[in-house]
């Protein structure tokens, strides 16, 4: 019988430790080589290399970014982690909350991460702080709306056959 609670606690501890000292490689022991990422304001993708690029872009924009785990709940392979992000942008505080859904193995390895948060207030804060625009542009995180649309892989359509 799988001890999912132990697996969840291991993942949450690794997740929390990574966000205490974020670096693109802070979560390496947590990630499966084929881990899939779906996240607002960043490019969706697969694998640690993808995460390393996207987190490096985010940290270039928000070098003091941290996240606190507020709560978590798990059931089998599904683990939900409620977090609060904090950072400084153009000399002023920036914060938002998110819920990350992770699909994990019994060994505590993450196979999938989807982050859920309302990106509009975050984007509005960036856009309302002109001192942040150059850093934002150089980071590769923006422009938010065009980047999300243009860099998302084209949808694949499944065409059903007729019988």
TrEMBL record:
InterPro entries per the record?
A: NTF2-like_dom_sf, SnoaL-like
Name of protein: SnoaL-like domain-containing protein
Which SUPFAM superfamilies does UniProt cross-reference here?
NTF2-like
Q: Which domain of life is it from?
A: Bacteria
In what residue span(s) does the SnoaL-like domain sit? 12-105
